[in-house]
Amino acid sequence: MTHPKTLSTADYLTAPLHTLESTDITAPAFKANPFGFYARLRQDAPVFPVQLKLGRLQRAWLVTRYADVGALLKDDDTFVKNPRNAMTPEQLRQSPTANLPGPFKALQRSLLSLDGADHDRLKVLVHKAFTPRTVEAMRSSAQAVADEALDAARRRGSADLMGDLALPVPLTVIGHILGVPERDRGKFVTWTKAVVSLGDRNPLFVIPTLLSFMRYTRRLIAQRRAVPADDLISALVLAQDQNDALSDDEILSMIFLLLSAGHETTVNLIGSGALALLQHPEQLERLRADPALIKPAVEELVRYAAPVEQGTERYAAHDTEFAGVRIPKGELVIGILASANRDASQFEAPDTLDIGRTGNRHLGFGLGMHYCLGAPLARLEAQIALNTLVQRAPKLKLAVPAADLTWRRSFVVRGLERLPVTL
């Protein structure tokens, strides 16, 4: 296998399809504008194999059309989350994600890595702790952090919106929800970066960081079992359904999921959403003039800016034909949310940002059994952060050309390294 590469947008439109199999869909240059590549696939090869580097090079099937992505996300019998329910013994031996070292196997007990009855049981217990009341109670905390960030930025006259706004809002909220002492919340930044880097690096490289995270979290769980508090870890410890309860490994895995699938994706929604508004000043002014548009605006930014570019991994449970393409048993299949959300068969003017868009049935939070549990919280945080930014920074401008911005190398998510602005 050759190593993955990144082509220009023009190349994607003209290159022979077979040459696109080596496209590096995790590369920063690709993340800057993946939409031309996906448009080509929707037109000519809606189920397409690429070489994906997840610890090693392996084949992954990209599903790009809206209807097909929806069907993939809902077919929990054919496309499963747990590789052990799909892979052959030989495939399992070669899979870095299926063969985590012993201490890390607990991280595979989350909602995103279980199927069937195991998933349903965990979801019932977690839902008892993750209620609408819990989410709504975070509104004042999120608003206070956003206001503090904007106060500091206005005094300076400049800001990095990733580090100064997009990160602090969800970090403070998730730390508060979990019951992490404020003095320790900075550690979560390091842990989160390690989590999202798993898509591009050999898992062995982040073992020390993950071990630190696990040791710390197990201590918190033990403390809450001894003396419960008013936080999510305590609620998970106490959650029961017909004498069933979560194990420490399941609680640990749920916290890991909140950090990776919850916190990090919201950071990118706020950051990439702000960039999209800055690149479309007429939409920025429209929101500034009518703050009540913030709810449809955030839905449109989820669709347009693609902070979660890909659905999480699924594996073919058996040899199957999907959208006319044969996919072998055990192979990785990825629904491309960013592509589905730009499909002209579903969205009028899909490449246009319209913060008042109606009937916006985007797939940005997934679909089916594995629909994002944290979607209400992500929406709340993004609505507060972005509306506060737009309303309190009337002279908001990019401080560098958009072409000079650096996108992070990553799998699943799509986000910026920095977003420098003037106010």
UniProtKB/TrEMBL annotation:
It comes from the Bacteria. Pfam families: p450 (PF00067). The keyword Heme applies. SUPFAM superfamilies: Cytochrome P450 (SSF48264). Gene3D superfamilies: Cytochrome P450 (1.10.630.10). One of its GO terms (molecular function) is iron ion binding. The keyword Cell inner membrane does not apply. Keywords: Heme, Iron, Metal-binding, Monooxygenase, Oxidoreductase. Belongs to the cytochrome P450 family. This is Cytochrome P450. It comes from Deinococcus koreensis.
